[in-house]
Amino acid sequence: MKDLLKILFMLGLVIVVFIYKDNISNFITDKIIYKGSNTVLTYNEYYLNNDYLYIQNTDESKVESYQDILNMFYSIINSGDDSFSFYCDYDNCMKDAKDLIKNKDIIANINNFVHPYNSFSSINIDVISSGKITVKTKKVYSNDEIEFINKYIENFMEANINDSMADADKIKVFHDYIVNNTIYDEDKKEKSYTAYNLITTGKSICGGYSDIMSIYLNILGIKNYKITSANHIWNLVYLNNEWKHIDVTWDDPVASDGKQYLIHNFFMISTEELLELDKVEHNFDKTIYLEANETSLID
């Protein structure tokens, strides 16, 4: 009789496990495998408390719409956390998160709104059927590179900047300094897109120019982000209640005569002026970089 009861108990247990296998699997994954995964955002010193028309910071751990997913990814990258978990709370949420990671254009655009030191070189997600999504990032800049860049800018500011200068002048002096001391890297070597490569080799492509400018602007406390088109990247700066474009790369032209030139054609100009000068390489998505629209100036 006891043996029969044991058999029936084990059979019942097997049936329960089979019926609730997904729930049990999710519990084990969530509580054991993912034990200790970060579900509360922590912010490093390069976090920027900036919201934009396209994307905003959030501290919610659940997402209830596609916009919430965009905001969550922005907040995670912006915070500087290397790993963070959140929970889906609407249909297709997990699919939307996976699609977002696969869509390199969208995720790269989100990267442009954060401090370059918190921007990622790679990003991936772990998804479990319970609706938990863990985002993991690897940053572009190492701590040693950050320290080197910060010291470089500190030395520049000590030699060239004083409190009596207007912010526009502080920006222009740095703009000119970068142009006069670097050249565009036509070979486009590995990591040529970083600010670190720009100041250590004197060469870079547009990514390095826009990063060093963004880092400098953030040190000055001036709101800014980077704008990407199909093949180019530059800076958008909020100064004196207006958003203006700065393209250091195009102000440092590659001349056929081999001489170095400093121009200011792309320094602190409006979107209208920018597109009058070039509508090809600067053809950006105005549904994302909304502040660049002439009618969308915000604080």
Layout of secondary structure:
Elements: H1 2-19, H2 21-33, E1 62-63, H3 66-79, E2 83-88, H4 93-102, H5 104-111, E3 120-127, E4 132-139, H6 143-160, H7 167-181, E5 183-184, H8 195-201, E6 203-204, H9 206-220, E7 224-228, E8 233-239, E9 242-246, E10 267-269, H10 271-277
Parallel strand pairs: 1-2, 5-6
Antiparallel strand pairs: 2-4, 3-4, 7-8, 8-9, 9-10
Helix pairs in contact: 7-9, 8-9
Task: Give your account of this protein's structure.
- This protein is an alpha+beta fold and 299 residues long.
- It has 10 helices and 10 strands.
- The strands form 3 sheets. Strands 1-2-4-3 form a 4-stranded mixed beta sheet. Strands 7-8-9-10 form a 4-stranded antiparallel beta sheet.
- Strand 7 and strand 8 (233-239) form a beta hairpin.
- Helix 8 packs across helix 9 (206-220).
